[in-house]
Design a protein that fits this description.
Elements: H1 4-13, H2 23-27, H3 36-47, H4 51-58, H5 63-74, E1 81-85, H6 91-97, E2 103-108, H7 111-134, E3 150-153, E4 166-172, H8 181-191, E5 192-203, H9 209-231, H10 237-246, H11 251-260, E6 265-271, E7 276-282
Parallel strand pairs: 1-2, 1-4, 2-3, 4-5
Antiparallel strand pairs: 5-7, 6-7
Helix pairs in contact: 1-7, 4-9, 5-6, 9-10
The protein binds S-adenosylmethionine.
């Protein structure tokens, strides 16, 4: 079986030599481009090999904590069907796999990101079952059983899933990258059952002026250099990242968009001084 490292190394060595985002394109609003979807896919294909490492390093290890908060907000019930959209390399999908859910599907439109997710998932399966079976008194014995996620290639704006098939839909750092977020939100509403929950984890700009200034210095001036170096990236992905955050819906506009998509109630929770926000939309029970 291929290891996650060999898949990553292969992606590293074939990383795209050309720029996906030109500086003058990022001076405009990247979300208004008609070729946004193609650029986003090319960009993630080129950084897939170093994506997880960059996340851990540049969030100072907080990214997995944010994803765990997303799982808590989803209030998964035993047997729930979870769909993790724009799942990328599967970090959030894998957390849902051990949440007590009955089934978990991860969907993304960038094949190299899914390749890594599948390898990580295959590596996680034997490790967890060995841990749970060897020492019954161990704390792992009380952990909910892991379901094996299914990873599928697909588009957030046209999910190949029936109406009302899911209890939880999640999207972490993905909605901002979708070319028409309102279309995606309508799809999430369509596939959720009565009582279902949508959890959106997304970056935002902190409300406190001093923290916002410090965050901007880090995300606009430091991180693009260090992350590009780490990923050996020339696609411009890490210059697109802060630009795509500042030009995307802030938490208030996101709340309004979720309500407009037909969700009956929306809760929000700030994470790490408001650099990230969790938004949970609920479907009324009949
Ligand atoms: C920043 S990554 C987030 C990955 C993952 N959710 C995480 O927590 O790390 C954004 C992902 O969104 C995916 N994406 C963007 N637009 C998409 C679309 N229309 N349909 C499916 N996936 C999409 C990209 O391929 C990429 O893997």
């Amino acid at each position: 079986m291929e290891s996650a490292w060999s898949v990553r190394r292969g992606l590293y060595s074939t990383s795209m030599p050309k720029a996906v985002w030109q500086p003058q394109e990022l001076a405009q609003d990247p979300h208004s481009r008609s070729d946004k979807a193609a650029k986003v896919r090319d960009m993630f294909a080129s950084i897939a090999g170093a994506y997880d490492l960059n996340n851990r390093v540049h969030s100072f290890g907080l990214d997995q904590r944010w994803r765990r908060a997303a799982v808590r907000m989803a209030e998964v019930r035993p047997g729930d069907a979870v769909i993790d959209v724009a799942c990328g390399t599967g970090d959030l999908t894998e957390l849902f796999a051990t949440s007590g859910a009955g089934s978990v599907i991860g969907i993304d439109f960038t094949a190299p990101m899914l390749d890594i997710a599948r390898v990580k998932s295959a590596a996680a399966t034997p490790k967890i079952s060995k841990a749970t079976s060897s020492t019954p008194s161990d704390s792992t014995a009380t952990r909910p059983a892991r379901v094996c996620p299914e990873y599928r290639e697909g588009d957030a704006m046209a999910l190949q899933l029936p109406d009302a098939c899911a209890d939880v839909v999640s999207i972490a750092f993905g909605l901002r990258n979708v070319s028409e977020p309102t279309k995606a939100l309508a799809e999430f509403r369509r596939i959720l059952r009565p009582g279902g929950r949508l959890v959106v984890l997304e970056f935002d700009e902190p409300r406190n002026g001093l923290i916002r200034a410090m965050n901007r210095l880090y995300t606009h001036r430091i991180m693009p250099w260090t992350a590009s170096l780490l990923a050996r990236d020339r696609s411009g992905a890490y210059r697109y990242l802060p630009r795509s955050v500042e030009t995307f819906l802030d938490r208030d506009r996101l709340r309004a968009a979720v309500l407009a998509a037909g969700f009956s109630a929306v809760d929000q929770k700030e994470l790490t001084f408001g650099t990230c926000v969790l938004t949970c939309g609920r479907i009324a029970t009949r």
